[in-house]
Amino acid sequence: GKMEIKKFDPVVRKHVLYKETKLK
After folding, report:
1. Taking a C-beta distance cutoff of 8 angstroms, is the pair 16, 7 a contact?
2. What's the pTM value of the predicted model, to 2 decimals?
3. Distance of CA 5 to the CA centre of its chain
4. Which residues contact 15 (CB under 8 A, 6 or more apart)?
5. Contacts with 16 (C-beta within 8 Å, 6 or more apart), sequence order
6. Residue 3 in contact with residue 20, Cβ under 8 Å?
């Protein structure tokens, strides 16, 4: 299944959700 991971984005300076399929 697909997972949603919260990751800190230094560009926008906040936590954003990443889909597992986009993590490459």
Report:
1. yes
2. 0.34
3. 5
4. 6, 7, 8, 9
5. 6, 7, 8, 9
6. yes
